[in-house]
Amino acid sequence: MNALTEGKVMELTCSILENMAFMMLEEAVDVDAMEPTFHTRIEYAIDQEASEVFLSATTGFLEELASGMLSAEPEDVSAGEEGLQALQELSNVIVGEIGRALGAESTPLIVGLPEVIYDIPTQKEGTECLDCVLDSMGETLRVLVHRSHLAER
């Protein structure tokens, strides 16, 4: 099984967004200034790990994400509708890529359905936390992975 790091999560997410929505991202500098409005959560299990991925994004990021995925103008999409659906789809794709990075070709990957939530936890007891915040033209996306290693329980 391969190691999963914050850098790997950031690399996967940037690649996914470049291919899916034609977005160019970089690591966010001013993380404290991030004011996300939309959040999703999705669970996955692979080998001896049962974990969660949380995505948190600003309104402008969701508008850019949805417009890129739908080939529409940002003003023609709604962050609360198409944007939130795009964030849920992004959750699915990120978990799939995390699974591949962890060896899903040879080990079954179980993935839950993405759900909209009202806030994301910054740290959960008993989990390893991978946290990366990305910036696209001043709008931000946080990817938070809470990894629970079952062998340790």
Question: How are the SSEs ordered, and which strands pair?
Answer:
Elements: H1 6-21, E1 26-27, E2 38-46, E3 49-57, H2 59-70, H3 79-101, E4 109-111, E5 115-117, E6 128-136, E7 139-147
Antiparallel strand pairs: 1-6, 2-3, 2-4, 2-5, 3-7, 6-7
Describe, in plain words, how this protein is organized in 3D.
Strands 1, 2, 3, 4, 5, 6 and 7 form a 7-stranded antiparallel sheet that branches. This protein has a single domain, classed as Chemotaxis protein chec. The chain is of the alpha+beta class. The protein is built from 3 helices and 7 strands; from the N terminus they run αβββααββββ. α1 crosses α3 and α2 packs across α3. It starts with 5 loop residues before the first helix and ends in a 6-residue tail after the last strand. The longest helix has 23 residues.
Features:
Chemotaxis protein chec, 7 strands, seven-stranded antiparallel β-sheet, 153 residues, 33% helix, alpha+beta
Q: Identify the CATH class.
A: Alpha Beta
Q: Report the total helices.
A: 3
What is the total number of structural domains? 1
Please tally the β strands and state the result. 7
CATH second-level architecture: 3-Layer(aba) Sandwich
Instruction: Return Rg in Å.
Output: 15 Å
**Derived structural class:** alpha+beta
Q: Fraction of residues in helices?
A: 25-40%
CATH homology superfamily? CheC-like
CATH topology: Chemotaxis protein chec
Regarding quaternary structure, what we see is single chain
- Note the gap between the termini: 19 Å
Poorly predicted ranges:
none
- Return the string of H and E elements: HEEEHHEEEE
Mean pLDDT: 90
Beta-strand content bin = 25-35%
The largest sheet, given as strand count, sense and whether it forms a barrel, is: 7 strands, antiparallel
Shape summary:
globular
